[in-house]
């Protein structure tokens, strides 16, 4: 299914006929007889719906799935098209090559433009989505960091990763493009939250604007596949705090510690991060070694973590600019910014001087 007219952009279009077609296109010999869709989550770019399904005859497919699709006006969907293609690409081509826990994908569809897509995924209930504003526990952060090692380790410095369409290390042209949009986006962020920014947070934005371009193209010794937005809002936690990572729209190759820096500096409270940070890095590093990574010392991991902390304000500014404004979104971005500023102050004190 690649015709935009065949791919739903609204829950009302998730009909038995549509779902039968996409499942059959994925090689599933099945007929969906009925479907009930219930919205779940609060995705910033795409919509997710829990589907209660009945089938004609016996099937191994589950009676409940989650459908993820591009929703909203066409212009909004066009803006997110690259991210939508990324997520479909991850489930189709990359998920089987790494060891990070992800939902099983039963079927997918994407238009040539990327403005329309559909994923049919396992429903992970009773697992619950993390809360970025409240933050996670140290045990939950450890579970996500160890899971991320299962993403990074299997494709550690794997040159074939760069042969995947849409995946390449940043170039000088990427730097120029990023710098051209970063300045106005940072200015817009400042204007939007002018009455709520503290001095350390304002200094963090200054540092971001001054150094992000150079950081983006700085030579790196190691690269892997990154999630790109690894925070607890993008993780489902089981009753025993097991972690399943979702929302694969921002995948990119890069320095692996960017994911870990973003996770720990924005998803833990400042107090918990300060108390547990070094132990969590040691646990992540040990998990990397279990996935076959060699020649990478814990001291290297800690160094790369500190120099990757700029990932947080970068994603915060771009994420805020791309998302539709909401009260929760505003609180989330400001909470993350405050935590990030504290982390940079603690580990890179000269950056905010």
Q: Identify the CATH class of the largest domain.
A: Alpha Beta
Question: Low-confidence spans: pLDDT under 50, at least 5 residues?
Answer: none
The total number of structural domains is 2
- Total DSSP E strands: 10
Strand sequence of the main sheet, in spatial order? 1-2-3-5-4
| Cα gyration radius (Å) | 20 Å
How many helical elements? 11
Name of the CATH architecture of the largest domain: Alpha-Beta Complex
Task: Kindly report the average pLDDT value.
Answer: 96
Q: Which class of secondary structure composition applies to the elements?
A: alpha+beta
Order of helices and strands: HEEEHHEEEHHHEEEEHHHHH
Coarse shape: globular
Distance between the termini: 54 Å
The fraction of residues in strands falls at 5-15%
Q: What composes the largest sheet? A: 5 strands, antiparallel
Residue share in helices?
Answer: 40-55%
**CATH topology (level 3) name of the largest domain:** Aminoglycoside 3'-phosphotransferase, Chain: A, domain 2
Domain CHK kinase-like: 119-294
Pfam families: APH (PF01636)
Protein name: CHK kinase-like domain-containing protein
InterPro entries: Aminoglycoside_PTrfase, CHK_kinase-like, Kinase-like_dom_sf, Oxido-Kinase-like_Enzymes
């Amino acid at each position: 299914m690649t015709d935009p007219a065949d791919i739903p952009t609204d829950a009302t279009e998730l009909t038995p006929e549509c779902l039968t077609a996409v499942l059959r296109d994925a090689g599933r010999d099945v007929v969906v007889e009925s479907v009930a869709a219930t919205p779940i989550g609060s995705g910033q770019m795409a919509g997710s719906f829990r589907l209660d399904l009945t089938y004609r005859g016996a099937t191994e497919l589950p009676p409940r799935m989650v459908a993820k699709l591009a929703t909203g006006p066409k212009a909004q969907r066009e803006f997110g098209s690259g991210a939508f293609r990324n997520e479909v690409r991850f489930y189709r081509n990359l998920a089987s090559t790494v060891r990070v826990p992800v939902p099983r994908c039963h079927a997918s569809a994407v238009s040539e433009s990327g403005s329309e897509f559909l994923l049919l995924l396992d429903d992970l209930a009773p697992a619950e989505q993390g809360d970025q504003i409240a933050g996670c526990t140290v045990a939950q952060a450890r579970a996500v960091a160890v899971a991320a090692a299962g993403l990074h380790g299997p494709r550690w410095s794997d040159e074939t990763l760069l042969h995947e369409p849409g995946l390449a290390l940043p170039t000088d042209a990427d730097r120029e493009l990023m710098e051209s949009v970063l300045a106005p986006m940072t200015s817009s962020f400042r204007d939007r939250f002018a009455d709520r920014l503290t001095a350390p947070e304002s200094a963090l934005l200054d540092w971001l604007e001054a150094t992000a371009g150079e950081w983006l193209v700085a030579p790196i010794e190691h690269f892997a596949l990154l999630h790109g937005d690894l925070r607890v809002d993008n993780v489902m936690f089981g009753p025993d705090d097991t972690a399943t990572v979702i929302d694969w729209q921002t995948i990119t190759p890069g320095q692996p510690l960017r994911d870990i820096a973003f996770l720990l500096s924005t998803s833990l409270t400042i107090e918990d991060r300060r108390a547990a940070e070094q132990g969590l890095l040691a646990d992540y590093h040990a998990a990397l070694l279990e996935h076959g990574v060699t020649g990478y010392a814990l001291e290297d991991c800690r160094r790369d973590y500190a120099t990757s902390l700029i990932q947080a304000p970068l994603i915060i500014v771009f994420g805020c600019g791309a998302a539709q404004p909401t009260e929760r979104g505003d609180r989330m971005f400001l909470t993350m910014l405050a935590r990030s500023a504290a982390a940079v102050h603690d580990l890179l004190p000269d950056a905010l001087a």
